[in-house]
Amino acid sequence: MNKLFFLLIFFPGFLFTFGCANSETEKTGQETAADPNIAAQDSLRDVVFEIHDAVMPKMGEINRLQRELRKWKDAHPDADPEVQEEILKTLDWLTRADDGMMEWMAGFSQPANLRDSLAHDAIMEYLTGEQKKVQAVYDDINGSIGAAKALLEKLNQEK
Predict the structure, then answer these.
(1) pTM score, two decimals?
(2) Do residues 16 and 85 both lie within one domain?
(3) What is the residue range of 28's domain?
């Protein structure tokens, strides 16, 4: 009897609650497709994430290069001080590049989360700023990786 009572009371409420949620989701999706401001915001967000997505897979390479440079440094404690300094500077650059990506990702807000508090122009300005920031992260990651590879090649030739 308790199960029947539960089903008679709970199940219709469950259907009503989630049935309304689905129609609200569909309505929001239709509004998004029809609103040119939202489409422009989403398009610029996509540009930002194309940059991010192009460089994010290289985070593992940064870690690998850091390990290789530390290994070389540890294996050559009597290396020239200038070489040691170059290794430290390159390790620092790799670390800053890695930290830059993590900080950018932690600070990024999706346009949908800004729409209640910001006007369209402010969101577009925000996304343009984020595009510049993630481009700097992209450049920093690629630059540090290039420098680390060149340094490792030079160090390995000197053996």
Answers:
(1) 0.77
(2) no
(3) 1-34
The half-sphere exposure of 95 on its side-chain side, counting CA atoms within 13 A, is 9
Q: How many CB atoms lie within 10 A of CB 93?
A: 18
pLDDT digits (tens, 9 = 90+) for 14-48: 334 434 434 433 444 555 568 999 999 999 999 99
Same domain as 152, residue 84: yes
| 18 shares its domain with 58 | no
Q: Residues 43, 131: contact at Cβ < 8 Å?
A: no
Judged against a pLDDT cut of 80, whether residue 155 lies above it is answered with: yes
pLDDT beyond 50 at 9: no
HSE at residue 108, side-chain half, CA atoms within 13 A, is 21
